Amino acid sequence: MKNSVWLIIVAGFVTGMGNGSVFTIATQLAIGRGPFAEAGVWGMDAYSPFTLEGFGNWVMIVFGIVFVLILGYALKLHGVIEGLQEE
Fold first, then answer.
1. Looking at residue 50, what is its pLDDT?
2. Which residues lie below 8 Å from residue 38, measured CB to CB, with a gap of 6+?
3. What is the pTM of this model?
4. Integer distance in angstroms from the first to the last C-alpha of the chain?
5. How far apart are CA 81 and CA 83, in angstroms?
6. Mean pLDDT of 15-20
7. Strand, helix or coil for residue 16
8. For residue 51, is pLDDT > 70?
9. Do 64 and 17 contact (CB within 8 A), yes or no?
């Protein structure tokens, strides 16, 4: 598992943030976008979870972190299984 730390981080974040963006789009299509002034595309509004852009960014960050944890745990269990099979 030590050799695959960067693989876990990169693959987990890419997969998680990709899935988070799909979830964000589906959610925003269901609830509506709101006025353009509250889109969150100016300055630090992009990181406010109460704006359109900020909500999407936070969902993608959370999904990325969760997928890193899931992938790390899955590869850890895979190593345990492979270790038991060799004995």
1. 87
2. 51, 52
3. 0.80
4. 18
5. 5
6. 92
7. helix
8. yes
9. yes
